[in-house]
Amino acid sequence: MPERKKVLLRLDPAVHDALARWAGQELRSTNAQIEFVLRRALDEAGRMPKDAGDVPRRGRPRKRRPDDEESGPDEQNPKEEGPSEDR
């Protein structure tokens, strides 16, 4: 993954405080919230570059069980499909 760009951003203190509160409610850092909002705005405007990478996942990796290795990312938490005959 290419190195991420670093930018200096000057914000009105009230705007920064509002972003920081919003980020806290969404369990993100203020920096991650700014990127989230910018990406959403680019996507909604149809201006998201096709070569833009995904947002890097941060934090502790999820614990993996031995049976998770066989399933894909969408299959790690299968939903029940109705009552089981065993019950």
Automatic annotation (TrEMBL):
SUPFAM superfamilies named among the record's database cross-references: Ribbon-helix-helix
Record-linked InterPro entries: Arc_rbn_hlx_hlx, Ribbon_hlx_hlx
Region (Disordered): 42-87
Domain of life: Bacteria
Organism of provenance: Nocardiopsis coralli
Entry protein name: Toxin-antitoxin system HicB family antitoxin
Basic and acidic residues bias (residue ranges): 42-57, 76-87
